[in-house]
Each structure stands twice: as structure tokens, then as C-alpha cells.
Amino acid sequence: MAKKNIAVYPGSFDPVTFGHIDILKRSLNIFDKVIIAVACNRKKGYLFGQEERVKLIKDTIKSIDEIEDDRVEIVALSGLLVKFVESINARVIIRGLRAVSDFEYELQLATTNRTLNPDIETIFMMTAEKYSFLSSTIVREISRLGGDVSTMVPLLISEELQKLYSKGDRDETLM
């Protein structure tokens, strides 16, 4: 049996957006399997808990016909990303870039990961132009303020955000 070419796509995915899905689909054109590692950073506040994000991504992936869900695995990540990548015998980390402004931070992470394990590569993928403005933070804010995010996130996510914010405080403004 041939060795599978596995990549890890880490992130907060709070919530998952069409930009994330775009990177995933394109990664599946390169790799046999992509493992989405849902991170939990204690310094960040999350709208959805880690297990909830894992479930939302699993359910979202199942609903997308173009994605063979047996080629995607979604896991809750704890600890160092590099240690996780080593533990599953993967050698590639995928990171999406929206703009040059993302690159400096991502380069820092990639360099740190390479210092921890020089055998693990980070591949940067530019998001499709139509998603270059899109971030989970923007989606949360628009949704919180009563805006329509259906062109930014899968239907399941849009519905979950609507439920969550249906009783929320929308007195603040954005932009």
C-alpha cells in the first residue's frame, strides 16, 4: 500500500468560512488526506467551543458534494501543532493567506515550527480573490449586528449564527 500524502490544516475556524472551504478544496487537489486541526488558544475568546467547532465543521463538510469526506478528518487540537503533525506522520502544514498583512504573522509561525522540527514544511495558499476580505472575525461581527452572512459561510454556519445572535445586543456599529 502506498504511503498517504497527508497535510494538516490548523486554525480556529470560529466559524468556518467559504475562505476556509476554498483552501480545503484546493488542498485536496494536492494531498490524499487533509486533517483539519481545530485549535484552542487560551488567549482568544471563542464564539463556539472547540468541540462545537469540530462538530460544525464535520457537519459542514458532509453537506458539500465536491468534498469526499473520507479524505478529510476533523480533530480538536491540544498542545503543540508540530507534535501533533509528528504524531500522525504528516510532514506538511497548510496555511491560508488572504493578504500580505497575514504573511508576517504566518511566516513567524512557520519559522518557529521549522525550528521545532525541520522536517515539517509549511505551505502557504493564497485564498481565492473573492474571499480575500473574509475572516471569521468579520463574519461574527456582521452576524452579531444582524447582517446577512449567507454569502460568506456555509448554510449550516449561517443558521447557527442566526440562532446565536437572534436575542443578542446589536447596539454597536461596525465599520
TrEMBL record:
Q: Where does substrate bind?
A: 12, 44, 81, 95
Q: Name one GO cellular component term.
A: cytoplasm
Coiled-coil segments on the chain, per record: none
Q: Which residues form the Cytidyltransferase-like domain?
A: 8-141
Question: Where does this protein act, in terms of pathway?
Answer: Cofactor biosynthesis; coenzyme A biosynthesis; CoA from (R)-pantothenate: step 4/5
Main localization, broad class: cytoplasm
What GO terms in the biological process aspect are recorded for it?
A: coenzyme A biosynthetic process
Q: Which GO terms describe its molecular function?
A: ATP binding; pantetheine-phosphate adenylyltransferase activity
Sites annotated Transition state stabilizer: 20
* Positions with a binding annotation for ATP: 12-13, 20, 96-98, 106, 131-137
Q: Which Pfam families match?
A: CTP_transf_like
Its EC number(s): 2.7.7.3
Instruction: Show the Gene3D superfamilies listed in the entry.
Output: HUPs (3.40.50.620)
> Which cofactor does the UniProt annotation name?
Mg(2+)
| NCBIfam families hit by this protein | coaD_prev_kdtB, cyt_tran_rel
What is the annotated role of this protein in its UniProt record?
Answer: Reversibly transfers an adenylyl group from ATP to 4'-phosphopantetheine, yielding dephospho-CoA (dPCoA) and pyrophosphate.
Give the family per the record.
Belongs to the bacterial CoaD family.
Assembly mode: Homohexamer.
List the protein's name.
Phosphopantetheine adenylyltransferase
Where is the organism placed in the taxonomic lineage, from the top?
A: Bacteria, Deltaproteobacteria, Candidatus Acidulodesulfobacterales, Candidatus Acididesulfobacter
The gene name reads coaD
